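chain below, 147 aa
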Amino acid sequence: MTTHTPLIDEILTAFFAPRVELATGITRRRIQQVEHRLRACCEAEGERVLVTDDLAIVAVEREFDPVAVITRTMHAPDLVFILTLFAEPPWLFVDRLACRAQLRLSGELANFLVNQRLVNYDDYVCPILDIGASVRNGLEALRQQTR
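prediction:
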């Protein structure tokens, strides 16, 4: 018996959908903006973090359907590495409040991946710590801007 390994698309839907559902107004819009931007980051930067075999899969899949090829073919470990890019410029929103939401959600998503056992913390400790450092540094920089 094989177990289903969720795709990035499924992971993002499972993570963002409940947050969007519970939020209202501007908070809801920011969460949706972060999800949209993360999906764009996955497609734009995904190939930078993939190994050779995964690049071959993406190339074949792109021949059939080029839309959202990374999110519909890759998995949680790839998302961890994409998050290291997403929590840093140039992917950070310029708007301070949107940037704060992006950083917080990035950290929460990294924790979600570990807590849901989609990645083993010990196997991905370095990029997970990098995400945490980017989140902390980014939030501190935002706090400094308000002083």
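The chain has one domain: 8-145. The first helix runs from residue 8 to 22.
thats it, cya
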